[in-house]
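Proteins fold reproducibly. Look at a concrete instance:
___
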Amino acid sequence: MEIPQAVEKIIDTLEAGGFEAYAVGGCVRDTLLGREPEDWDITTSARPEQVKSLFRRTVDTGIQHGTVTVLENHQGYEVTTYRIDGEYEDGRHPKQVEFTASLTEDLKRRDFTINAMAYSKKTGIVDEFGGMEDLKRGIIRCVGAAQERFTEDALRILRAIRFSAQLGFSIEEQTLEAVRQIAPNLVHVSKERIQVELTKLLKSPHPERMSLVFDTGIAPYVSAHFAEAGNPGEKDGENWLTAEFEPEKYVRWAAFLRRLGEKEAERILKELKADNDTISRVRLLVGNWKCPLDADKYQLRRAMSRMSGEMFDSLLRFRLAAGTDSREKTEALQAMAQEIRRDGDCISLKMLAVTGNDLIAAGMKPGREIGLRLEEMLEDVLRHPEHNTKEYLLRF
């Protein structure tokens, strides 16, 4: 396995200090799959205070759970002491952790076999639970008893489905059965954490696996209106949430929720504590993906006036992926939009040749009437771009 120089240096330093140290978890899994790991985690037999004594720059990120962040080449690497998790009182976090000298004990507490492998140059790959074999077979399987792993931390229920979608793996039968049985424990998980997992699932190469959230009985514990909506990604028994949609967060949520309409989509995303920017963008796509949009410059200017240029381009691609418009029509609309931009046609109040101050100077009283008059002017200019001159609009 090739590992980054900084990770190798940290492992070498810990080993030189008389301790064991390994890259562990998702970074090992992703490297074996030929994927670029998002981050590199290191596990060690050294206690947090021993780790800190070996490195010049460290941050106490989770020292009560044995984690110290080591700064190397302006980047942080989490170094965590081998540990055994105590009792999980809240269905999410261990009440206390116990440090151990055993790598096997540390790997045993992890969620899935493919995430329970470790690597060092000195030892090679440590795979105590058949993670390599499950990677080859394309299987998501819990370490040890699935019910125990999910009872410890209910978020793992959603992680099983999310990894299945990201990697294109199937979920092993006993693991899937445990998902169904332990689903009610998701009440212990915050809506924000649920939303993060669902977003990763939707952005994956297999967003259609969202159907598993409904098939396994998880949906009622996601949010009230999410469950009531049924599976919005399906229509007439066919899954219409495909990877054709761009893997942007707001695009995939809009693709999933599009048949519910703007208000229902917004309500579900608010229940899941999504950020306002995502909600606003989803509303725009859901509200406009089916609206008539012909290759007519006035219609296009009107549509462009309701959103940013970036969102308008995104809408055209979204409509193509949703099957609203053909590729030929999309290309014609894109070309026409480019022409409108190139010609500098007015498509917003900011681009109008007059401002509210100009109208006041011309004798209008300040107030609501000015805003209404500017809107009327914009409507006229959207239809007749040549009217966007100060002289014409002040006569208007």
Observations:
- The first strand starts at residue 21 and ends at 24.
- DSSP finds 20 helices and 13 strands in the chain.
